[in-house]
Every structure is written in structure tokens, then in C-alpha cells.
Design brief:
Methylamine Dehydrogenase, Chain H, 0% helix, mainly beta, 30 strands, five-stranded antiparallel β-sheet
Length: 344
């Protein structure tokens, strides 16, 4: 593992913003920007990493889809250490609720749990008519109430057989997803309306262009809210910020109010990469094609630039009061970095 310390951060306004046409009362405190950044290199080049989660700045985790001896990385406050867990591979979908309740999706419908000391098999799920599937992600409100979701192959062997499993009070329920198609990538419950929203990617293969689709789920039915081509500048996503679901609709960031999208911010830049993370509505981090930008409720400012472009992305974030961690993937070099920002 190699660490680089950045002694200063970059502050450069590179594009304009547009206020929402509808006034939104918001008493959130604007986020600070005076981070000191360090960069850790994960010793597993070429692997694919999926997400970050941590209970504190000295207990952060990430997982990879390959290399058994590099399948799990843990940050203890000083360094990133890789762990080998026999039988635990092809990992995706990392989420936790405490330092001794961390879950990860693994090979063919299995879910493993870290109890503070060891990783153990928690569940092995099946879906009728599906021989093989992977969980893309995990999210929930507690260790006794959470969702695991992803996809299996459809009749054309594309990852469009949607999977959503709900664990509550010790029992698993496989939701009926026959009317939707695609790999379920993100799923959250919105605090203000108590509805479930999820984003899936529908793989087109050679017949259709891949698309991103956002659905609302009320417990009895699915409602399609938005659909777009999965390409830079147009694609859609969702993010959970302070209990509220934020919708990324191309260059628009919005919330759902009275069953309508309400604009929070229009990002007038072709560099916006349709992925955000945040602590509150005035402390949001935006992925750009060339780095990371911060929105404080008034303007946008670069926090850092990538060393290699294009095709460098951020595939996960862990945010704390004074610390932020971002999982940066340099596609062109195969290198994986953790950018760790710490407020003075």
C-alpha cells in the first residue's frame, strides 16, 4: 500500500449553477471545504471494487469481485489491510449497521455477515426459475430490516432478471419483480414519504441501448418514474442523503415532493458524471469526469482533480463528521485509490 499526502486542496469554480424555480426552505448548514487529502493505493490492481462503508473513520471497509487473498480491505485508521476469507468471493453489495453487523453480497445469492471478529455465511437465497444470480447491493434501516438486490440472467443471458429480497424479523421475502427488467443497483427508503425508490440498469445487448430506470415501490406495486439512456450526461441515478432520496436525472438533481420531481440543482457542465454523495442538502459531493466537486448550497467548487483521465470514476463513498473517503478507479491504469479527506 502506498500513501500520498496532498498538502493543499484545489478550489476552482469551473461552471455555473442554476437555482431551482421552486423555493425550498432549507436550514441545513453549508459543508466546509478545507480538507487535507491523502491517497492510499489498494494493492490489488485490475480488480473491480464495489462500494465503501464504515462505522467510523478508523473502521472503513471495501470489497472486490475477485482475488481471494484481496477480497476484503479494511482501514483501521492507519493503513488498509487485505483479508482472505475462504469461500467468500465475487463480492458486491457492502453495507453495515455497526462495527459488528456488516453484510456483503457474494457468489450466487449468498450473503455473509461480519460479527466483529469473523465473516460467516448469513443466508443463501434462491429465486424460483433462476439458477444463478448476484446481489449488486445491500441497503436497509437496521440489521433486522434490510434489502439485498441485483439480478440474474434473462432468457437472452443478459443481467435483466431483477432480484429484490427483503429481510425482516428473521425472515426473507423474495419480491415479485416479474414486471420489471434490469439489474437493481441502488435502493433506498425515503424518509419524507416512506416510499421505496430504486434504480436499475436494463442491459440492451445488441438489440437496444442500455438504459437506466427509476422506480417507486409502495409495497404493492411498481411505478416507473424516469428512464434514460445509460451514457454520460443522460443517465439517471439515486442517492440517499440525510434520510432523503435525491434523484440524478441527467444534469438535474431533484427530490420527490407531492409525487413530483422538485429541482434542487441544475449542473450546467458536460463534465458532470451523474453520481453524488452527501451529508445534507448543502454538503453534496459530485462526480465529474476530471475530479470531485462540492456543492455548499450556493456554489460549486473542485476539491481535487484526477491524475489520469478519461474514464476515471468514483465507485463508493464513506462520509463522517470530519472525514470523507472516496473509492477512485483509474480504468486506464487499473489502479484503485482511496482518497481520504480530513477537515482541519
Amino acid at each position: 500500500m502506498k500513501r500520498i499526502i496532498l498538502l493543499s486542496f484545489i478550489a476552482l469554480l469551473s461552471f455555473n449553477t442554476c437555482d431551482s424555480p421552486t423555493e425550498i426552505i432549507d436550514d441545513a448548514i453549508p459543508g466546509r471545504r478545507d480538507y487535507v487529502w491523502s491517497i492510499d493505493t489498494l494493492d490489488a490492481p485490475g480488480n473491480f471494487y464495489y462500494g465503501l462503508w464504515g462505522s467510523s473513520p478508523i473502521n472503513v471497509w471495501t470489497v472486490t469481485s475477485s482475488n481471494w487473498d484481496k477480497s476484503i480491505f479494511h482501514f483501521n485508521g492507519d493503513e488498509w489491510i487485505s483479508n482472505q476469507v475462504v469461500g467468500l468471493f465475487n463480492l458486491k453489495g457492502l453495507h453495515g449497521f455497526s462495527s459488528d453487523n456488516i453484510f456483503v453480497g457474494a457468489d450466487n445469492g449468498s450473503i455473509w455477515r461480519f460479527d466483529g471478529n469473523n465473516w460467516k455465511l448469513f443466508a443463501k437465497l434462491q429465486k424460483e426459475g433462476t439458477d444463478y444470480f448476484l446481489f449488486q447491493n445491500i441497503w436497509g434501516e437496521s440489521q433486522s430490516d434490510f434489502y439485498a438486490f441485483g439480478s440474474g440472467p434473462d432468457k437472452n443471458h443478459l443481467a435483466n432478471n431483477s432480484i429484490i429480497a427483503h429481510y425482516t424479523n428473521g425472515d426473507w421475502t423474495m419480491l415479485n419483480t416479474d414486471i420489471i427488467q434490469g439489474n437493481v443497483a441502488h435502493l433506498y427508503k425515503n424518509k419524507s414519504d416512506n416510499k421505496i425508490y430504486f434504480r436499475l440498469t436494463k442491459v440492451g445487448g445488441i438489440q437496444h441501448i442500455d438504459s437506466t430506470i427509476i422506480y417507486e415501490y409502495t409495497g404493492t406495486s411498481y411505478t416507473k418514474l424516469y428512464s434514460s439512456i445509460e451514457t454520460h450526461g443522460l443517465q439517471a441515478d439515486i442517492s440517499l442523503i440525510n434520510g432523503e432520496v435525491y434523484f440524478i436525472l441527467g444534469d438535474e438533481i431533484a427530490k420527490r415532493v407531492n409525487n413530483q420531481f422538485q429541482t434542487i440543482l441544475n449542473v450546467n457542465s458536460p463534465k458532470f458524471y451523474q453520481r453524488i454523495w452527501g451529508r445534507n442538502s448543502k454538503d453534496i459531493f459530485l462526480l465529474m469526469t476530471d475530479g470531485l466537486v462540492h456543492y455548499n448550497g450556493t456554489d460549486l467548487e473542485y476539491l481535487f482533480y484526477f491524475n489520469v483521465t478519461p474514464q476515471t470514476q468514483i465507485y463508493g463513498a464513506a462520509l463522517f463528521k470530519k472525514d470523507v473517503f472516496f473509492l477512485v478507479d483509474e480504468f486506464r491504469t487499473g489502479n484503485k485509490f482511496i482518497y481520504h479527506g480530513k477537515l482541519n
